[in-house]
Amino acid sequence: MPKKGLIERLDSGVVIGDGGFVFALEKRGYVKAGPWTPEATVENPEAVRQLHREFLRAGSDVMQTFTFYASDDKLQNRGNEAQKKYTGAMINQQACEIAREVANEGDALVAGGISQTPTYLNGLGKEAVQKEFEKQLKVFVDNKVDFMIAEYFEHVEEIVWAVESIKQKCPGMPIAANMCIGPEGDMHGVSAGECAVRMAKAGADVIGINCHFDPDTVLAALRLMKEALTKAGFKKHLMAQPLGFKTPDASKQGFIDLPEFPFGLEPRILTRWDCHRYAREAYDLGVRYIGACCGFEPYHVRAIAEELQKERGCLPTGSEKHGQWGDGLRQHTKPWVRARARRDYWENLKPASGRPYCASMSKPDEWGVTQGDAMLKQQAQKTTDEDLQKLYKK
Fold first, then answer.
1. In this predicted model, what pLDDT tens digit does every residue of 340-375 receive, in sequence order?
2. InterPro entries recorded for this chain (predicted)?
């Protein structure tokens, strides 16, 4: 029996995405923070394969190719030599093969992924940006991925160009389009609702938000998108793939503005119970593609799958060793821990903030720099000490 496609699945139920590969693999020592590029598909394919398997076991219905930031211009940006060593095509080819191998171990789909480019930030124009997309898209077409995800776009202009490229080079393939924005809209001041409408007009089948913000903020922005789409007469599926961190204090630029980014975010990590609430609130909003991004580990995705077990009609394999709502604790040696084997305890828990004597909230940097600003110009050579001194002074 052939697998049901993305739209068919969304029309009849819930699709659960996978989690945050770059952050998970950086913590494991396979991705370099800074460039965040996915050459691990070539250098350490087993690490990528294992993480896919963990998300599949946790309940993910989609194996998204580990191709985040895998355009040639990003792979050679600011001293990164990945593109010289392996080429973008090689990295993306390996990503497709790994994702398909694991997807075939279950009933999962494979999604190819493209994201924002340094070429856009450099202001080089539509033709140059779409040329970068098209080099990646050839690999996805050759590997017959099940659908495409355009994700992590800060500017609606660029994601519209991405959707246009996908429609041209991948005819008939479903397209999910995600921006990394909050309720304030994109970095050029386009409202969240207008961004959604423009993505729909460009031809996206699924519209949503990924990364940069926590579940509460992402769902608040999706409400605005849903209202605007309805008003404009579009019926589109909604998609959410938020951060696995609590970031209510993040500004328009999202968590990359927080001083803890990227190495001090652990005190902000969502609990699995936060993920239960996120899954339920997303579903109640009408979101049917419910996934995750940076900070989400497989156990977070398992919580999403467990919360939606009634709607999905099943539990993930990873729940075999997990008593829901702490039920497994009834087997614990200590009586006060056994007393926590109940839903109301965990559902109403207010976790400690993390580190003793820490500041209760941090202050976003808010430099206000985006596409069109000279400070954001990208370059092939590595950032020098002199370049950094200029930034330190700011």
1. 999 999 999 888 777 777 766 667 777 777 888 877
2. BHMT (IPR051524), BHMT-like (IPR017226), HCY_dom (IPR003726), HCY_dom_sf (IPR036589)
294 is in an annotated binding site: yes
Annotated binding-site residue? 275: no
Three-class SS of the chain: CCCCCHHHHHHHCCEECCCCHHHHHHHCCCCCCCCCCCCHHHHCHHHHHHHHHHHHHHCCCEEECCCCCCCHHHHCHHHCCHHHHHCHHHHHHHHHHHHHHHHCCCCCEEEEEECCCHHHHCCCCHHHHHHHHHHHHHHHHHCCCCEEEEEEECCHHHHHHHHHHHHHHCCCCCEEEEECCECCECCCCCCHHHHHHHHHHHCCCEEEEECCCCHHHHHHHHHHHHHHHHHCCCCCEEEEECCCECCCCCECCEHHHCCCCCCCCHHHECCHHHHHHHHHHHHHHCCCEECCCCCCCHHHHHHHHHHCHHHHCCCCHHHHHCCHHHHHHHHCCCHHHHCCCCHHHHHCCCCCCCCCCCCCCCCCCCCCCCCCCHHHCCCCCCCCHHHHHHHHHC
CA within 13 Å, CB half, 74: 26
* Rounded Cα gap, residues 18 and 151, in angstroms: 14
Question: What's the whole-model pTM score?
Answer: 0.91
Q: Which domains does the chain have, with CATH numbers?
A: 6-315+364-393 (3.20.20.330)
> CB atoms < 10 A from the CB of 345, how many?
14
Beta bridge mates, 114:
150
What is the C-alpha separation between 134 and 26, in angstroms, rounded?
Answer: 28
Summarize pLDDT for 103-153 with one digit per residue, the tens: 999 999 999 999 999 999 999 999 999 999 999 999 999 999 999 999 999
Q: Tell whether residue 293 is among the known ligand binding residues.
A: yes
